[in-house]
Amino acid sequence: MSVVKVIELIAKSPESWEAATQKAIDEAAKSVKNIESVYVKEFKASVKNNKIAEYVVIVKVSFIVD
After folding, report:
1. Are 54 and 23 in contact (CB under 8 A)?
2. Closest Cα partner for 45 from 12, 8, 1, 7?
3. Which of 1, 21, 55, 59 lies 20 to 30 A from 41 at CA?
4. Among candidates 2, 52, 57, 53, which has minimal Cα distance to 26?
5. Under CATH, which number does the domain 3-65 receive?
6. Cross-sheet strand order for the sheet of 51-65
7. Whole-angstrom Cα distance, residue 33 to residue 29?
8. Quick one: pLDDT at residue 65?
9. How many CB atoms sit inside 10 A of residue 8's CB?
10. Where are the domains of the chain?
11. How far apart are CA 6 and CA 26, in angstroms?
12. Are 57 and 44 in contact (CB under 8 A)?
């Protein structure tokens, strides 16, 4: 039987929500092995001069514990 652990991360990108999500996975992968899935819990954006300046995601990353 496997044990799955879930961590919650916040990531930002000036490009897109997809890029912010990938950034969260990339950062998690630096210290976590066996990433199985990512769940995007929340989407946000910061606005400057009536334009989206930064895309923000709050994600839950699931991974199998060895």
Report:
1. no
2. 12
3. 1
4. 57
5. 3.30.1660.10
6. 3-13, 51-65, 35-48
7. 6
8. 92
9. 11
10. 3-65
11. 15
12. yes
What's the token pair of residue 30?
Answer: 């630096």
* CA distance linking residue 32 with residue 30, whole number of Å: 6
pLDDT tens, residue by residue, 10-62: 999 999 999 999 999 999 999 999 999 999 999 999 999 999 999 999 999 99
pLDDT band at 2 (very low <50, low <70, confident <90, very high): confident
Question: Considering only CA atoms, which of 66, 62, 64 is closest in space to residue 7?
Answer: 62
Cβ–Cβ < 8 Å for 62, 5: yes
Side chain identity, residue 17: W
